[in-house]
Automatic annotation (TrEMBL):
Localization annotation: Cytoplasm
Protein name listed in UniProt: Cell division protein ZapA
UniProt keyword list: Cell cycle, Cell division, Coiled coil, Cytoplasm, Septation
Functional description taken from the UniProt entry: Activator of cell division through the inhibition of FtsZ GTPase activity, therefore promoting FtsZ assembly into bundles of protofilaments necessary for the formation of the division Z ring. It is recruited early at mid-cell but it is not essential for cell division.
Entry coiled-coil feature ranges: 59-86
Length: 88
């Protein structure tokens, strides 16, 4: 039961999608809502983009944000290790 798949039908940028994952349905909905909001944000600034290009820009934006957070996480881990090293 730990790997039970949840299914959510949602709308992203005016199109219906079924999202399936092991995360909670609330989490799946939140992911879909974030993608929809980001696509609308980017689309409102770039009216000439078709949905395919808009989706790619949204993915690039999300990946950029993820990589920045990953780098910050690694920096914080290193700082924590330095602090722990001083305390010993």
């Amino acid at each position: 039961m730990a790997n039970e798949r949840n299914r959510v039908v949602t709308t992203i940028y005016g199109r219906e999608y079924t999202i399936v994952g092991i995360e909670t349905t609330d989490h799946l909905r939140k992911v879909a809502r974030e993608v929809d909001e980001k696509m609308h944000e980017i689309g409102s600034q770039n009216h000439a983009l078709d949905s395919g290009r808009l989706a790619v820009l949204t993915a690039v934006n999300a990946t950029h944000d993820y990589l920045k957070l990953e780098q910050k996480y690694l920096e914080l881990e290193q700082e924590l290790a330095r602090i722990k090293g001083r305390d010993q």
